[in-house]
Task: structure prediction
Amino acid sequence: MPPEQQLTIQQAIRLAMQHHSAGELSKAESMYQQILNAEPNQPDALHLLGVIAYQGGKSNVAVEMITSAIAIRPDYAEAYLNLGNAFKELGRVEEAEQSYRRSIELNPSFTDAHSNLGVLLQETGQVQEAEQSYRKALVLNPEFAEAQNNLSSVLIETGRLEEAEQSCRRSLELNPNFAQAHSNLGVVLMETGRLEEAEQSYRRALELNPNGAAPLSDLALVVLRRGRSSEAVSYLHRALEIDPTSVKAQIVLSKSLDNLVPAWHVPMMNDTLRNEAYLAALRSAITTDSKVFEIGTGSGLIAMMAARLGATEVTTCEAVELIAAAAKEVVAANGLADSVKVLPKKSTDVVVGDDIAEQADILVSEILSSEFLGEAVLPSIEDAKSRLLKPGGQIIPGAGSVMIALFGGDSIGRNVRVDNACGFDLSKFNEITSNKLHILRYDLDIDLLSDDIEAFNFDFNAQDYFPADQKVLRIPVRTAGRCFGLIQWNRMQMDDEVVFENHPSLRVDESGWSRVIYLFPEPIDAEPGQTAVISATHDRQTPWFTLENLENHPDS
Result:
């Protein structure tokens, strides 16, 4: 020890520990080293230097120094605790457990050792033993907030949510600023459906610990469930900046992006036939005086087509802010930032004189779903035509039809229905499967057993409003075969000449639309001379088709 300090070894240790507790690690480390220079086998200094090494991420050094302290003082319970912590950090689980248990043997009332043993046991799947350790710690010290919180995590893991909530709240009574307890309470509240309260708990956890990747991911999951996908994405990007290896953040980010940017966007953009149809219709319609308004920006592809064809003004709107932001970047990357204006809002919220200077000459959209009517296509076009398009302006596509046909075929049949497998009758399983399916594959052989039938037609240029509709369709069987039901697809009349449809006979590698099938209760053996009587209806949002009966012609 420096002569000017004239401290005893124990006084020096106490002073060094004060620096250590205050977070002044360099001062504490210097004093511990001075103590060891004066007394090389001083176990407290060796132990506490090992703790500083552990806190600095040097767990190997910590093990060496703490082991040296224990060799000098074999009954050093606190040193065994910290040796266990270092072993645990190094992944040496068995040695960590032995160290914790030795610490408890030496001091059965050592609450930290019971609690830390519980954490290790829980992490290694010994949940029941972990709970026992936490409860022992709490018997010894009922005011132990950390043990209460650790107990809540076991209770959450074992599905005892009511007990878990009590444990979380008790932990927060003892320490209102315990970030992890707020986060665990958020888990309980989320799992019990109290999403607003869960959000508040996670936000409080993040106020106390802004760099918590786990509560950020959990907060994102809550707001995702509350319908705020864009907000969820922003939290998840922050979580992954903090912890790029967070599996939870990656999973929730994937769910959020699936909600915001469904997978059909990419094949839609790569659909050559679709793109060529829009390009041809735009080329025919656009002049250098044309003002174009688009509903549904997506990547910005159609808006950029219009700009490149010479439209004087192109405005496009996108309801999903994340997609709108990406579209702005795409437009800028293609040198068209001055030609295409992207509005991050729904078309129904666009205001003439504010968002756009005046009504457009051309209204273009590609917001049709695989069922044609999803995504509020009819209300959106009705509103845009009445407010955002000049009287007599052109709409692209100008009209569209919901098309159907009777279908069969072995390969598609094996994807929509099960009868026998490996000698077993599995047909009862069909009773619990949906009778409306989206077929995402384009490699399946589909036999059309009737002519193409236009179920519903929507003339966007000629009509201003499209009411719900119901009708009966009579579909003659053209080709014999086992008929599973009806297959539906879309046809778009882009203008007077250009037509685009995702007909079932097309074999394409990519498309934004799937075909939709409506299964009959049981397959029917259809023969020419028969007629399927179909009830067809739509409620402006979704079409539906039901087999009423199969009629035989009198002369068949």
